[in-house]
Structures are given as structure tokens and as C-alpha cells.
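User: Hey, my collaborator sent me this sequence without any context and asked if I could get a structure. I don't really work with proteins. Can you help?
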Amino acid sequence: MSDLPNCPKCNSEYTYEVGTLLTCPECAHEWSNSPVPASAKARVWKDANGTILQDGDSVTVIKDLKVKGSSSALKGGTKVRNIRLVEGDHDIDCKIEGFGAMQLKSEFVKKV
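Assistant: No problem. I've predicted the 3D structure and written it out in C-alpha cell form, which is a compact way to encode the shape of the chain:
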């Protein structure tokens, strides 16, 4: 038997290597078998004051922010509830009353 791991998508035991990737013949899923570095696993998001943020936190916008595609700005002091942290340049996904779905940078908010 092979010592390759089962497919993470369909749990098939018939995986095989193609270069540096592992491939599943049943669902055509491809993934890397290399271990993920510890720095990538332990991403920490911090607000403007250095407080650690988590999914579901409430934050306050610390300064007026221009909103692309809108004539009005997002005022400093606006409270945002139930944030979701994501990878990328704008690392907070949220919904703001009066504006709708929006992405914010964690450097422009503080935890409530």
C-alpha cells in the first residue's frame, strides 16, 4: 500500500503524485503535500491600538473613510458588529448600516 494521504475532499485512498502536487483520480482534487509553515497558520489580526481581533468582534471606525463609489464617507465612530477576518489587503469583512457589505483594513478600527 501507498503511504500517501487520502484525498481531503472525498477521502479517496487512490491518490498519486504529479510533480509536487498530490492528485485524486476520483474527484480531480489537487493539493500540496508540503507542510504549511507555522507563520501561515498563526495569522494574528490587530486593531489600531494593537489589540488582537477575532471573528464576531465589534469594532469602531477611528477616522472618516472615503467609500469608493459613494458620495458619502464612513464617519469616524461608526460601530461595526460581527466582523469576519479574511486574508488580503482589506482584512475585515462586515456589514455596515446605511452602507451594506464592506471590507475594512484593521489599522482603521479599534475593538469595542
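In plain terms: The chain has two domains: 1-38, 58-111. You can pass these C-alpha cells on to your collaborator as they are.
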